[in-house]
Specification:
Length: about 210
């Protein structure tokens, strides 16, 4: 284990500087936010099971042709990105595509699954809420304007951008997709995570699966 000050000294000696988040991006007008579910998660970010607590969110990535939008689904038990989708439109179809990707890959018992997100119009749209209802997935939503209610998902996006995307320039949407997919593979299978005892998310998944 190495302390913060030791790392700061090493970085200073090597001329390394931390990459800081850029200014906030404002989404196009895609509709109003609405509260359709209570905050059932209540910042309980470390369940002891997998495929029972999923969180989702959407972020943005700029290319020379415009904006690309990434929707992800993260399993709180393993911290693994279990589903994702990319699009040039930040709409409910994108959020639904990411959920479908997670369902196809994980095949959970949806009757035992909670899905938590912010109150964004993508997650409060009828098509998304009806999808959850049809599958028996319990919906949970953050309190308005409180990003800490979905802190783990926000932290993944921060890692994605500061570790990989912020120092790159993208020609088009396809180039964004390629780099994002590479990072998600790295994040799930190689990047150690402090919240799960410095295991990789996939190692944590195998551990919980073996114990089940």
């Amino acid at each position: 284990k190495v302390g913060v000050y030791a790392i700061a000294t090493v970085m200073k000696n090597l001329g390394l500087k931390a990459i800081r988040p850029k200014k906030k991006h404002y989404y196009p007008n895609t509709g109003d936010e609405h509260v359709y579910a209570p905050n059932l998660l209540k910042r309980q970010f470390n369940p002891t099971t997998y495929n029972t607590h999923w969180v989702g969110d959407i972020t943005y990535i700029k290319s020379h042709q415009g904006w690309s939008y990434l929707a992800c689904v993260l399993d709180l038990g393993t911290k693994e990105i279990v589903g994702y989708a990319l699009s040039s439109q930040p709409n409910a179809a994108l959020a639904t595509a990411a959920l479908n990707n997670a369902l196809q890959r994980q095949r959970p018992n949806t009757q035992e699954l909670m899905f938590h997100s912010d109150q964004g119009c993508q997650y409060s749209a009828n098509v998304f809420r009806e999808k959850l209802k049809h599958l028996g997935i319990e919906q949970s939503m953050s309190r308005r304007g409180n990003c800490w209610d979905n802190a783990v998902m926000e932290r993944f996006f921060r890692s994605l951008k500061t570790e990989r995307l912020n120092h790159l320039a993208f020609i088009n949407h396809s180039s964004v997709v390629s780099v994002v997919e590479q990072y998600i593979q790295f994040y799930n299978y190689k990047r150690r995570h402090s919240a799960i005892d410095y295991k990789t998310p996939h190692q944590k998944y195998n551990e919980l699966k073996k114990a089940a």
